[in-house]
Amino acid sequence: MNNPTHRESAVKDVESREELIYLLSRASELEHGLACVYLYAAYSLKSNLDEGGMTEEQLTMVKTWKRKLAMVAVEEMLHLAQVNNMLTAIGGAPNFKRANFPLPVSAFPFGIKLTLEPFSLATIERLVIFELPEEGVLEPVVHAQYDELRNKVVREQELEYAELKPRHFKAEPELIARFGSEAFKFQEPYEIDFTTVGEFYHKVASGFKCIPEDVLFIGPREAQANARYVDLSGKLISVVNRESALQAIEMIVEQGEAPTQQHPDCHFEIFDTIRKQYISEMEKGANTNTVFDPVRKMASNPMTRFYDDATGGTLILDEDTHCAADIFNMSYDTMLQMLLRFFAHSDETEEELEMLSRATLRIMTTVIRPMGEALAKMPLGDPANAALMAGPGFGYNRDITLLPHKESAWVFFCERLFNLAKEATALAEQKTSPPEVKEASAALQALSELFIKKTAQAQKIIPKVEFVDPAKLEPEINPSTNGPYLVKGVSNLLNSKGERLLAEPQMALCRCGGSANKPFCDGTHARIGFDSSKLSGRTPDRLDKYPATDFTVCDNRGICQHSGFCTDELPEVFRLGKEPFVDQTAASGERISQQTKRCPSGALSFSFANPKLNLPVINEPTITVSKNGPYRVKGSIKLDADFLEGASKEHYTLCRCGGSKNKPFCDGTHWYNNFTDDKN
Known about the structure:
Blueprint: H1 6-10, H2 17-43, H3 56-89, H4 121-130, H5 140-162, H6 173-176, H7 180-185, H8 197-210, H9 213-216, H10 242-257, H11 267-288, E1 302-303, E2 314-315, H12 319-343, H13 350-375, H14 406-428, H15 435-454, H16 456-461, E3 476-479, E4 485-488, E5 492-494, E6 506-509, H17 524-528, E7 543-547, E8 551-556, H18 565-569, H19 589-596, E9 604-608, E10 622-625, E11 631-634, E12 638-639, E13 651-654
Parallel strand pairs: 1-2, 3-12, 5-10
Antiparallel strand pairs: 3-4, 4-6, 7-8, 8-9, 10-11, 11-13
Helix pairs in contact: 2-3, 2-8, 3-10, 3-11, 4-5, 4-11, 8-10, 12-13, 12-14, 13-15, 14-15
């Protein structure tokens, strides 16, 4: 930013507030669109070996791609918030609008189309070009190579473009034939003298440099997002003067296309590394006659209905998938409405502002993310291509406009969340629904309850009903693959002090150890690449039996949580560090029986020789969040997992730190990986 390149110095200065507001509004549309494009590519990548087409080593690499793409998308949302801070600072209105996908090449003057496409070589090449540094950042020889790549991408677009019948260009047909930046120039109210995203932001920066500070900064500071409200790695900058505005722009440019030697995690470097790795794996496959197929078969630009502002798209025909797509789109719509309300709030309290900002992040991570993954596995419903999945379309069912009146806006949010929770819960009950739908429905239920509880007017309007009839729910825990525990029908959820926590009929409990909202899932597992697989090196599944005259003690070390109840409370029988571990002769059968019932993991069991003495253990279904340790489950809650030999199904412990080698069961790893949960 401090050493202008040749291209930067060629960009003309912005000298009016109106032009700067216009450019920032376009920047908002760009950042918003890029976030969706990157997420779509991430959703299209496979997550598990059972999806086929990869070795275990390749899956690890692909999961890294998926996580990196999602991370970049989150940073684009950071850029979106940052741009809206700049808009607010200079008196502009927050802008979260954008056109529906696909956008034509001429939508932005960079010559590259914005379209939702599954991952492919063409897709990742396009993403690389989106983030290509401007001239002067890379070495000339290196930059020339990427210019060739840009030309390749543009040529491929020309072939696609020749088959389209554009409906939304205002330019004359002969200009359409030229498209790209040339056609764009005839559609914009201001001169377009930039061809890369970096140059675009340099032009924006010129406005903050040229227009006097005391004239430019007229917007309310309190209307901006900052790290206190929006936790985006603490990087969100409040724009209050020229210095902070230029700092914000520098952050956006550096994250996107900075010199890779200084910023190895810039978007350009991330995408280019993925591109090179993908090419390498495809070449290996061709040379060894093996298949490398990391991509789900997803449609391009899926939509629930045709939009007037889109230049094409693929209609979702399957009924359940259509319902899931509507839930996704309306959740996305709700998130944007909340963001608008946050940026243009009137008399919200500090607590309400924090609630709005946190809710947008929760919707993004616990609703939109799992619903996007679900849609990537749900059929499009195309009779001609039954194997084609849908994917999330990020569709705008209506314009995103500000809800200007506080009380009615909050009632609207309550009604929307309530209706979304009902629809998602009903869909989750369908046997064909992916588990991610259950995760999203649990999150929507919790958000709905939270907002209604805080909005008195909504409590008068929205009926108090259960999303599902608890009486019809059998207590059950489903450990989702690489995701949370999906719990239903358990009303007793306790913290380590025995205090009751808010338990919904359906809940998603964190199992990766990273949630900021423990014990509930907040979507962190997707960001950190949580792997729910069992690991090598775990204690073997072996049932040891210790018979006495009239009873038998059994022990399976493979499921022991290492709580120490047995060795601390009856050390003469359960001998720490000695072999055999159990001395069944050192206490009475009755005393040992009582102690084995105290074993939270169910590794220990006991039976009298006289079956009449073996009374069943009856507890109310309960999940207790132990202090800095696992979930302690009792009451014969059904668990969708394979139990180890001899292990109790009445009571057991589930890993909460994310580190157990024997997932979903706890193996005591929390003692060694410094897992903490101060809230519970």
